Each structure stands twice: as structure tokens, then as C-alpha cells.
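Hi team,

As requested, here is the filled-out complex form for the inosine 5'-triphosphate run. I kept the field names the same as last time so the parser does not choke. Let me know if anything looks off before we queue the next batch.

— J.
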Amino acid sequence: MNFKVKNKSLVLATTNLGKFKEFSRLLSDFPLDLLSPPNGWNCEETGVTFQENARIKASSMANFSGFWSLADDSGLMVDQLGGKPGVYSSRYAKSDQERVTKILKELGNKINRSAKFVAAICIASKEEILLEVHGVCEGYITFTPRGKFGFGYDPIFQPLGQELTFAEMNNETKNLFSHRGKALELLKPELSRILNLNSTSWSN
Ligand code: ITT
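And here is what came back:
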């Protein structure tokens, strides 16, 4: 017999609609009410690592809203560019399109195009950091943008061993390989634990 558990509110501390949609799908099995950031929340990302920034955003939102909060700090690291844009991925140029163009211009016709996506995810309450995970997806920067799905650098990132860019994959396929999908696989059992869930106490 399955018992219904009261949903727990969790604010997704992100202003990035692409991330918000991915998290909404990836966490849909959990008894959670996923909330958008309340008006007036603003948080400066002063960390120098993805983990630091994820902590900063999750704690800031938990303090602001009073609810548990989940934050993701993620980005693209290109080997030929010394790991750039890294934690500055969202600030590398003004728009997604300009950021993509900038990376392609900086790489030019270089043969070594290896890169990786990294995601650090943190869940915090007002009082403490509740859990932290991270995921990595290795791949390549393509020579030209391909595909129309996803967001950010998806049109120029092709995961290792795959023929499609993230922007040519549907959501389910991207999540199988992506940095965020991998981090979420690590997060799920931990999230079940802190929500006091077990297989008989909640239903999908
Ligand atoms: P929040 O801080 O409000 O969550 P943000 O877009 O500023 O939104 P980050 O500081 O973590 O988020 O920057 C991440 C950037 O890295 C994001 O804007 C994209 O440009 C890129 N990025 C991260 N994950 C990506 C993905 O799955 N596909 C494509 N680009 C991604």
C-alpha cells in the first residue's frame, strides 16, 4: 500500500528558464512543490568554483524565502581556452548566441576541441547545507552550431561518443549524458533520504 506524503516546498534558485525546465522534469517523481524564485531575490555569484557558487545561491535563496532551496552552478570548460569560460559561462558575452559565437571564434579551426560541462548542485535550508553533488559530461566543441533544442552552449557541444549535439537531442536523451542529469542521479537517493522517503512511503 502506498501512503501519500505531503509535498515539501523547494524553491529552484535559478533565473535561467532552461535550467528551471530541466529540473522540473528531472525532479517530477518527488513529492515536491517546485517554486520559482520569489520577486526581489538577487544574489551575487562571488565564488571561484561551481560548488562555491551553488552553495551561495542555495543558501541565499533559503534565507530569503524561508523554504528549502536548490541551486545549480554550471558551465562549460574548454581545454584549448585554459578551462574558460568556466564559472563565467553565463557572463562570457551578452546573449546565448553571442557566447556561442565567441567560443567558436576563439577556437577557430583548432583540431583539439575537447571540452566538458560541469554542474554543481546544492540544496540548503535556512540553517544548513543539506546536500551537494556534482556531475561532469566530457565532449567536444563542434565547428558550427547544430540543433534548436535546449539552451546556452547546447548547439556547439557534442558529448563524447555521440553524433548529436545537446541541441539536437530531446530532453530525455540529453539528460542521459548531461552534467545535470548525472548530478541528479547522485542527488536522487540523497534527496529521498533527507525527505525521509522509502519505496513504500511514497508513490510516483
Ligand atoms: P542561475 O545562476 O540563475 O541559475 P545562470 O544562467 O546565470 O542562471 P550559471 O551562473 O550556473 O547560471 O551559468 C551557467 C551557464 O552555463 C548558463 O547560462 C549556460 O550558458 C551554461 N550552461 C550550463 N548548463 C548548460 C547546459 O545544460 N546546456 C547549455 N549551456 C549550459
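Two things worth flagging: Confidence is low (pLDDT under 50) at residues 199-204. The chain has one domain: 9-194.

Thanks,
J.
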